[in-house]
Design goal:
- By secondary structure, the chain is an alpha+beta fold.
- The protein folds into two domains: 97 residues, D-amino Acid Aminotransferase, Chain A, domain 1, CATH 3.30.470; 156 residues, D-amino Acid Aminotransferase, Chain A, domain 2.
- It is 33% helix and 28% strand.
- The protein has eight helices and 13 strands.
- The strands form two sheets. Strands 5, 6, 7, 8, 9, 10, 11, 12 and 13 form a nine-stranded mixed beta sheet that branches. A four-stranded antiparallel beta sheet has the order 2-1-3-4.
- β11 and β12 form a beta hairpin.
- The longest helix is centred in the first third of the chain and has 14 residues.
- Bound molecules: N-(5'-phosphopyridoxyl)-D-alanine.
- The site of N-(5'-phosphopyridoxyl)-D-alanine (PDD) has 14 residues, from α6 and β11.
- Pfam families: Aminotran_4.
Length: 264
């Protein structure tokens, strides 16, 4: 990376993480749609056309021989002498693509046990619907969770409602209804979240898109998080308080299984 890359100096860039399952990119179309949206919102050009980018992703996965894992792509506004306004004339956006293997048994083991989450104030900016590389508040919340022995941090707004996780969307289940915050500007519209919403419809399960408080979450029957890397991951405690007896519940297990049948 160039020292004057604007991603490095200003977090002036966006990224995507896409799961690789059995050698294929999961929900590639939706990830590229969201990448294009993030870029549009920040007035950054696509670094190359979509077909070429799709080819690059496949080549990186192939050359790294990844069957299970993830591909990371990052696009920044490019390299230019440090100055706050956009470079004029425009420069070529910088693209980085990497792929790494992850042992699929790791995720299976984690899902069997479930994860612990802590809560932390959501002190991010107001456009978290854009998937920018500016993740410092997420990093600090996640580090705080790790120091408390938890695997994820749920971010909480000024009204005491959970927005989302540091790198996941947050869900609770109560009396058979699946509750998650509506995808406005207060959260990232997760691709996994969108697929799960479709799974619920197909499985005849009830969805409530609304805010929920930490207090309500602690009294939930089940809880879970979704992301490209965690898929559907049971949450078994919130701030040390056990959820659903401290074990992954039946609905979360069913959803995790159903997810594979629905994702592309
Ligand atoms: N994170 N919310 C936030 C803040 C995220 O960073 C992510 C993804 C999600 C879930 O989105 P999706 O289902 O599209 O992965 C929600 C990625 C995995 C990361 O930063 O590593």
């Amino acid at each position: 990376m160039h020292v004057e890359d604007r991603g490095y100096q200003f977090s002036d860039g966006v990224y995507e993480v896409c799961e690789i399952h059995q050698g294929r990119l999961v929900d590639e179309t939706r990830h590229l749609d969201r990448l294009e949206r993030s870029l549009r919102e920040l007035k950054i050009r696509m670094p190359m056309d979509r077909k070429a980018l799709s080819h690059v992703l496949r080549e990186v996965v192939r050359r790294n021989r990844v069957r299970h894992g993830l591909v990371y792509m990052q696009v920044t506004r490019g390299v230019s002498r440090r100055d706050h306004p956009f470079p004029s004339p425009e420069v070529q956006p910088a693209l980085v693509v990497t792929a790494k293997s992850i042992d699929p048994a790791k995720g299976v083991k984690m899902a069997e046990k479930g994860i612990a989450v802590t809560t932390a104030p959501d002190n991010r900016w107001e456009r978290v619907d854009i998937k920018t590389v500016g993740l410092l508040p997420n990093v600090l919340a996640r580090q705080d969770a790790q120091e408390k022995g938890a695997q994820e941090a749920w971010l909480v707004d000024a009204d005491g409602n959970v927005t989302e996780g540091s790198s996941t969307n947050a869900w609770i289940i109560k009396d058979g209804a699946l509750i998650t915050r509506h995808a406005d500007r207060g959260i990232l519209r997760g691709i996994t979240r969108t697929v799960v919403v479709e799974v619920l419809a197909a499985e005849g399960l009830r969805l409530e898109e609304r805010p929920f408080s930490v207090e309500e979450a602690k009294k939930a029957d089940e809880a879970f998080v979704t992301s490209a890397t965690k898929i559907v991951m049971p949450v078994v405690s919130i701030d040390g308080q056990a959820i659903g007896g401290g074990r992954p519940g039946p609905l979360v297990k069913r959803l995790r299984g159903a997810f594979r049948r629905h994702s592309e």
